[in-house]
UniProtKB/TrEMBL annotation, chain A:
Family: Belongs to the SleB family.
Pfam short name (any one): Hydrolase_2
Keyword Cell wall biogenesis/degradation: yes
Organism (species): Oceanobacillus jordanicus
Gene behind this protein: sleB
Keyword Oxidoreductase in annotation: no
Coiled-coil residue spans: none
Domain Peptidoglycan binding-like residues, every copy: 42-97
Highest taxon above the source species: Bacteria
Keyword terms, alphabetized: Cell wall biogenesis/degradation, Germination, Hydrolase, Signal, Sporulation
Record GO terms (molecular function): hydrolase activity
Region (Disordered): 118-154
This protein's name: Spore cortex-lytic enzyme
Signal sequence annotation: 1-21
Protein's GO biological process: cell wall organization; spore germination; sporulation resulting in formation of a cellular spore
TrEMBL record, chain B:
GO biological process: one example: spore germination
Transmembrane stretches, start-end: none
Domain Sporulation protein YpeB PepSY1 and PepSY2: start-end pairs: 180-370
Pfam families tied to this protein: PepSY (PF03413), YPEB_N (PF20769), YPEB_PepSY1-2 (PF14620)
Stretch forming the signal peptide: none
Highest rank taxon of the organism: Bacteria
Protein's name according to its UniProt entry: Germination protein YpeB
Positions of the PepSY domain: 374-434
Residues of the Sporulation protein YpeB N-terminal domain: 27-162
Amino acid sequence: MKYKKFLFFIMIPILCVTLQATHPESPVHAFSSQVIQQGAVGDDVIELQARLQYLGFYNGKIDGVFGWGTYWALRNFQYEFGMEIDGLAGQSTKDKLAQASNYDEQYVKEQLNQGNKFTHYGGTDNKNQTNQGGGEGDQSEDAPATGNTSVNVPQGYSQNDIQLLANAVYGEARGEPYVGQVAVAAVILNRVESPTFPNNASGVIFEPRAFTAVADGQIWLTPNETAKEAVLDAINGWDPTGNALYYFNPDTATSSWIWTRPQIKQIGKHIFCK
Amino acid sequence: MIRWIIIAVLAIGVTGTAFWGYQEHQEKNAVLIQAENTYQRSFHELSYHVDLLHDKIGSALAMNSGQSLSPQMVDIWRLTSEALSNVGQLPLGLLPFNKTEEFLSNIGDFTYKTAVRNLDDEPLSEEETNSFEELYQQSGDIKDELRQVQHVVLDNNLRWMDVQLALANGEEQVDNTIVDGFQTVEKTVEGYSESNVDSPIVGTSSQDHAYKGINGEKISEEQAREKGKEILDVKDAEKLHVTKSGDGADIPTYSISYKDNKKSAYMDLTEQGGHPITVLVKRQIKDKQISLNEGMEKAKDYLAKYQFKDMELFLSSQYDNIGVYSFLYNQGGVRVYSDALEIKVALDTGDILGLTARDYLMNHTEREIPEPTISEDEAKEAVNQKVEIQESFLAVIDNDLGEEVLTYEFLGIMGNETYRIFINAMDGREEKVEKLDGAEANYAANS
């Protein structure tokens, strides 16, 4: 094992020299064929970030999410190498990157899986680029297969906000069709926007007597993926209710006042109104 | 002998149960008192804040210079938000109290708008002063009503838990002083809302206008069904369920839904012109076959097919095997933020999973975009010098006051963060600065 590692470190500079000297025939394994664009996630993005970091363009975390930091690094790379600056990793950009840099996939993947803080700069010993921590040797099996340590979230929202909303949607509408669940999430978000309700999601959800699922504790059931997807759709702008602020189940509604609201439409069992 | 043992065991059992019952009772009471106290606190804070609000408006009326008026307005604005948050913590959920909340929030909007403007250059107009005086009267009435309720509550030791119970059981005829008191407040405010309609206090938000992007003939239910069949990609139009929207809808629409064992689908179609507002398809997504970039091409084709012209990609994000794309309308090189729409593409087959064009249909029109009066370099001067500008565009955005303004949009970096900065292209005013993120550490994977 030790010998292997040693060999590895010897190989890197040698490889570098040969790469530069001979202009190799296309690199053995570099990227899949996709054009990588901002917002993408996955192995190609990890490789892109690692290679950009190797060359010193990217100083952020290698996390597998093509965010703004990666975008600017890529544009700088394209600028420095005299290419068209479009912030897209197309074929020619990927070829140039693969020629100019090295990607130690095994090392990067290992660090990601262990949850270590690490970097991947060229010309530095890998041992000095790792900062043990975070993972505490817990080779967590539940880490996603892609090795991503970050996820995309809509601007202004955290995964925890999404989780809380998903809890509310699941508690309120788990028996409803998918649109009905998006609709309930949309009503919560419409309330956040509305001047007559609290102006954040948790305020709206926990407003006393606003939602039955909160009152009877069903909100603390574990939501499924469908509820989360519904919430994500609603946050991303889908609102099948047409700006509704209230909804009720006509079979169980106790308040007569709710019937006086102008009704917009019925989705599943719920009537949505202004 | 055995009899005595049984008696002893039973006696211990009874004492034990009694003790346990007593403890449960104590615990339940402790929890109830805790909840009651939270309600009481919100309620008393509410009366206090409204009282203070009334006083502050009163002193603002007597102020003359912008120097003292602006901070005062900010203070009133803060108080309205405090009071609103107090209301949000009271168990009024099903009690109609929204007129009062709207009233408070209108005061907030009005004071915010005046606070941010330079009152020395642009003092309160006569109309504004008049409505401000009216606000003073009205907030006084509300204050009196609330103080009255508060007095009764304190005097008779009324409990909010009882309100909650009364509302929960739907016993509306129950004589409940708190409920009655709040209903009186609400009625008082309702009386004002009509007189306030024409005054500048009631803000016009950019959302509150008719749909501008909708044109064409009214379509029939049959035509809607045909269109739904095409857009939702369903073979048999008979299986679509079509309903018309009710009176509360902003604009009359047909809602079309479909369900089989593979997918469920839903869409809203405007009655006039048959424009799709919302499309949502839900099905199992298989492994990713196409890239985010290819998905974007699919989304562009879709836009072209349904005659959304001159749209440019603004944002793309991948969530598992779904790509979500946001597009902006581009009018002659100027991107228009209010004419936005979103598209969702499945990255297994490249099908369109959703479209939402509400913002687009609501705001879209051919605008008269003026020539910028300041140059791009002059606008750059107005940006914080520490921000390294990387990209620039011309854009029309909604500013704080809900008006559309032409701006230079700059994307820049400061430290490790990326910012989007809008500088008014007419007067160089910094209209908006946003810090951009969009990715977050995956807590689930790191734990």
